[in-house]
Q: What sequence folds into this?
C-alpha cells in the first residue's frame, strides 16, 4: 500500500493550468466579441487601425532617415 501511495503522489495532476487557460480564453473572447459587435467597439477598432497606419508611415520615414544618415556618415569617414 505504501508503494501505491507514492505512485499516486508522483502522478497526481492539477487542473489549475486548465482553469487559468479557460479563464484567459473567456476574457479574450469577450473582448473580441465586444470589439466587433458593438458600435463603440467598432469605432475604437477603426481608430486603432487609423492610428496604426500613421505609425507605419512614421516608421518608414524613420527608416529612410536612418539609412540616409548612415550613408552620409560613411561618406564622411
A:
Amino acid at each position: 500500500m505504501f508503494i501505491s501511495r507514492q505512485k499516486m503522489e508522483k502522478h497526481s495532476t492539477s487542473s489549475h493550468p486548465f482553469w487559468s487557460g479557460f479563464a484567459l480564453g473567456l476574457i479574450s473572447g469577450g473582448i473580441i466579441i465586444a470589439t466587433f459587435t458593438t458600435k463603440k467597439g467598432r469605432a475604437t477598432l477603426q481608430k486603432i487601425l487609423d492610428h496604426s497606419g500613421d505609425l507605419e508611415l512614421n516608421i518608414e520615414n524613420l527608416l529612410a532617415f536612418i539609412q540616409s544618415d548612415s550613408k552620409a556618415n560613411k561618406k564622411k569617414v
Observations:
- The longest helix spans residues 39-76.
- The chain has a mean pLDDT of 78.
- The CA atoms of residues 19 and 25 lie 10 Å apart.
